[in-house]
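Sequence design from tokenized structure. All designs in this work follow the same two-part layout: the structure record, then the generated sequence. An example of the structure record is given first.
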């Protein structure tokens, strides 16, 4: 839609937030509670936990963008699921909560000139987010049998490991966090920050596809959106916060003719690519019971290799078990003895997102360094299971191929943490936003989502995104108080 197109409706706001996921929901609540008139435009619907069936395939088609079948092009192609709706990807995530590692903040200072993003500066933001989301460490009881297997393996090998911190309250260990928490125990932003924003007067408009951010004389003026049914909506606001996520934020900016100066927009895409292995144990594991992602092994984190729990009900395991035919059927018949654990790489490979027609085209090739990390990681995953007493280990490799010889194309990868396509850099020639998440060269346009994260984090990103969004909201409140 061109901004010249006559809108069928126009509303006034102090701030228009685009996207109600990790970053957008936080900014909206903080600003609305400080008295700003906030309008949130969210492309997806409001999902209600009453309709969450705990059936993986059914829920994926409802809660995920494109039914969870987004893919990258390249070697290898990587499955890239994204949430869509109020809560964004936090609605379907595993609930793992890590603060930004101090070494990463140091790197951001040295390599990207992000002097502002120090630990003392961000600590109050982390604390505020963790309190809002009821973040706490999982108990061993709730972690379940799958975590017990990994814990035993790590302890026998003397590897550093621990229970994860999560944003859950009253969790009953039903094991389907990625398919919509049926008890609303997982404290995603759709049931935490968005209700707060609403209570403080924010308008949350769902089914609203933001198409264009209008800027005049170097200052944000409005956001133009297409509503379900085709009507146009103009939200006039002097401040716009784009939080459409790492894949869609660069597309929206490109459509608006913004953020292109450094040539970085859409590039620098990191993914934290991941895979997982299974083990057949003598004991009853019952991985459908307990928190799927409850335990981590970070012994090799400095090498960019992180292990985290992953688990699910039989219908999910049947899709993921790297076996076929009779063998698949035989092992599935012993589902209660199966354990699973994930491997995530802190990648140095970088991809690019661009518009093709109306959709994102995502290019990403795994480089030699990351391939080596997967080779080592898969070998260590096998070691972990064997140390735990596995009878058999099933790695996602073609028959006869060992971890040390697997090629990039033979890897079966998924990615859950796209980052970096509108990266923060103090230098306008090298980044899209500055350290305060303001778009270089334009007043009143800010970004608060995974796209600003300039490097891989090595840990799950939601708390980093939300802490940066909190800091942005505080800065905007301060600015508004000055005027
Ligand atoms: C299966 C899975 C498990 C995960 N587990 C974890 C975990 O345990 N811990 C963790 O830290 N991270 C986890 N993540 C990642 C984490 O959830 C994301 O990094 C985070 O939610 C990204 O936040 P965001 O604000 O960038 O985008 P999102 O949360 O994806 O929100 C973006 C929102 O913008 C909307 N939008 C897009 N385009 C438009 C438009 N044009 N107009 C209006 N709205 C638009 C989208 O519909 C979406 O709702 C997981 C991800 C997945 C897929
Ligand atoms: S394990 Fe806990 S947080 Fe996850 S879906 Fe079940 S009740 Fe919700």
């Amino acid at each position: 839609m061109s901004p010249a197109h006559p809108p069928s409706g126009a509303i006034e706001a102090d701030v228009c937030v685009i996207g109600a996921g990790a970053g957008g929901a936080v900014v909206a609540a903080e600003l609305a509670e400080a008295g700003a008139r906030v309008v949130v435009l969210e492309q997806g619907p409001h999902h209600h936990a009453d309709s969450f069936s705990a059936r993986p395939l059914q829920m994926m088609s409802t809660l995920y963008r494109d039914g969870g079948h987004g893919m990258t092009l390249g070697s290898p192609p990587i499955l890239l699921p994204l949430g869509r709706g109020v809560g964004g990807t936090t609605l379907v995530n595993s609930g793992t909560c890590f603060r930004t590692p101090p070494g990463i903040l140091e790197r951001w200072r040295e390599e990207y000139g992000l002097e502002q993003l120090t630990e003392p500066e961000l600590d109050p933001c982390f604390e505020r987010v963790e309190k809002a989301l009821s973040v706490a460490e999982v108990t061993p009881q709730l972690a379940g049998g799958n975590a017990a297997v990994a814990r035993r393996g790590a302890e026998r090998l003397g590897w550093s490991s621990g229970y994860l911190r999560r944003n859950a309250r009253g969790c009953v260990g039903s094991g389907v966090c990625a398919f919509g928490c049926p008890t609303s125990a997982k404290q995603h932003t759709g049931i935490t920050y968005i209700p707060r924003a609403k209570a403080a007067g924010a308008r949350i408009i769902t089914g609203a596809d933001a198409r264009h951010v209008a800027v005049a004389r170097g200052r944000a003026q409005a956001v133009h959106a297409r509503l379900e049914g085709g009507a146009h909506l103009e939200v006039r606001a002097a401040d716009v916060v784009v939080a459409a996520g790492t894949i869609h934020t660069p597309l929206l900016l490109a459509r608006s003719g913004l953020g292109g100066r450094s040539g970085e927009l859409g590039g620098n895409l990191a993914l934290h690519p991941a895979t997982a292995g299974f083990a057949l144990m003598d004991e009853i594991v019952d991985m459908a019971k307990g928190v799927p992602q409850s335990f981590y092994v970070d012994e090799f984190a400095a090498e960019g290799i992180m292990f985290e729990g992953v688990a699910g009900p039989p219908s999910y395991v049947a899709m993921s078990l790297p076996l076929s035919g009779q063998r698949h059927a035989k092992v599935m018949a012993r589902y209660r003895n199966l354990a699973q654990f994930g491997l995530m790489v802190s990648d140095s490979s970088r991809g690019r997102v661009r518009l093709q027609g109306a959709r994102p085209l995502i290019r990403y090739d795994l480089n030699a360094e990351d391939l080596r990390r997967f080779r080592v990681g898969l070998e260590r995953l096998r070691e972990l299971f064997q140390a735990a007493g596995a009878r058999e280990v099933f790695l996602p490799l073609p028959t006869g191929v060992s971890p040390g010889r697997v090629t990039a194309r033979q890897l079966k990868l998924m990615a859950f943490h796209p980052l970096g396509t509108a990266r923060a850099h103090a230098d306008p020639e090298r980044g899209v936003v500055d350290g305060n998440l303001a778009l270089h060269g334009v007043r009143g346009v800010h970004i608060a989502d995974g796209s600003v994260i300039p490097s891989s984090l090595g840990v799950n990103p939601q708390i980093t995104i939300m802490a940066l969004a909190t800091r942005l909201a505080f800065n905007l409140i301060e600015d508004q108080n000055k005027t």
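Residues 462-482 form the longest helix (21 residues). We note this feature because it recurs in several other targets discussed in the main text.
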